[in-house]
Amino acid sequence: MNKRFALITGACSGLGKAFAQQCAKRGFNLIHLDIPGSATSSIATHIIFKYKVEAHVFEFDLTDTCEAQHQFNIISEEFPVSFIINNAGIGGTSSITETPVERIEQIISLNIKSTAMLTRIFVPHLLKQADSYILNVSSMAAFTPIAYKNVYPASKAFISSFSLGLRQELSGTNVSVSVLYPGSIMTNFSVTKRIMSLGTLGRMGLLSTDEIAAIAIKKTFSKKGIIIPGIMNRINYLLMSLLPVEFKLRIISREIKKETRVMPSF
Questions:
Q1: Which helix (H) or strand (E) is 78 found in, with range?
Q2: Could you tell me the CA-to-CA distances from 266 to 10, 57, 95, 176, 224 in Å, in that order?
Q3: For 9-40, what is each residue's pLDDT tens digit?
Q4: Are 5 and 81 in contact (CB under 8 A)?
Q5: How far apart are CA 224 and CA 220, in angstroms?
Q6: What is the chain's mean pLDDT, rounded?
Q7: Integer Cα distance of 61 and 104 in angstroms
Q8: What percent of the chain has pLDDT over 70?
Q9: Coil, helix or strand at residue 194
Q10: What is the topology classification, in CATH, of domain 5-262?
Q11: CA dihedral sign of residues 153, 159, 162, 165
């Protein structure tokens, strides 16, 4: 009987949904984590029917530290998880004076705190499996500060540093850690509208969620540490590594400011 389980946060839509489908194709049973009231249950039912795997749903607020820790402990004791995908995250575009303090706290709690806490709780259990994997979703935004986003790229830079440090710490064990740096993703209408408002620069490196998920899963199981999907994103990464911080900050921030003219997004 197949008892491999993959745990995916933010699994009800976008990249998380694509991750779930890719894992199910590979025979993994699934544990879907998402917020209450999401469409996670219907997606899980579809996956069970299509791929003939188990799919369990846990709906709770990942930013609620006490509840999250409680649920993580339950899941880690009940299921032999061998693959974790820390996908859940939020961002937004607005000037710092227009960004609610609550939004800043939410970004930090979801993007940083819940990822680190989930990973900490599950690593001892991953070490007990034959081969285990962690895939943390960062962003191309991690490679430079960005005005009008500010907290989001900083949070993704944390994910990058945290993941690569953890990869080194767990080298020589059965746990392989990978970090994914996707570019812009058109996950819904409002996000698509903002991306399209940025013109050519904003659309560079665009890939579908299915394409990104397929690349990420394949390279994770190949035990690749740094995953940058798409040739344009890899070219952008090389260019960014060569440009002075002040120059790339000014150029990218000028383009991102256009998003605020469409609609500030929190």
A1: helix 65-78
A2: 18, 27, 10, 34, 33
A3: 999 889 999 999 999 999 999 999 999 888 88
A4: yes
A5: 6
A6: 89
A7: 16
A8: 89
A9: helix
A10: Rossmann fold (3.40.50)
A11: negative
